[in-house]
Amino acid sequence: MTRLIFLGPPGAGKGTQAKILADIRQIPHISTGDILRNAKAQGTPLGQKAQGYMDRGELVPDSLILDLIRERLGEADAQAGWILDGFPRNVSQAEFLDSLLQELHQEFDGVVNLDVPDEVLVARMLERGRTDDNETTIRRRLEVYRQQTAPLIKFYGDRHQLHLVDGNQLLDEVTATLKQLVPV
Ligand code: AMP
Q: Ligand 1 — pocket residues by CB below 6 A?
């Protein structure tokens, strides 16, 4: 059983690595960013509410995210384990996750933080070319990460649940490090 949380700034390769590891372990890769982008593309009420925040590089309000996570972790495939990518994104989401997991009688194995220098992050995001990957939004997303998400490094670090991984290596090297960190 693998249950992991992927932290790290935008552009660190969280999504890519989370997906690779989830495929290997045959567990769902749960990306709140992917869920929101799908909702936006389909024009659902959630997507319509989230759109403006996403386009500006802001976090969408917790009220849009928390029920979504509760539902997703309650689905059948998530009972075999999961990798969370992009959630939690702030301390109140992390506290919510703690109480949700208690309710579900689940515990996670650890939190992975992929560390990558800012200039590499910006270059990677510009290459990716997503609609929220223009320079202004990228700068704002990095700021939001520092203000709201980076405090989770201390939050989980203080609880000895954090693994720091150098994300500025070749893709395969990062995957190899992650595989060693969480043996099957
Ligand atoms: P990501 O693909 O994880 O970089 O997410 C893309 C965008 O979706 C972010 O810039 C936020 O606007 C929104 N988003 C994704 N996950 C969350 C979350 N857990 N809380 C709030 N907003 C989120």
A: 10, 32-33, 36, 53-54, 57-60, 65, 86-87, 89, 93, 141
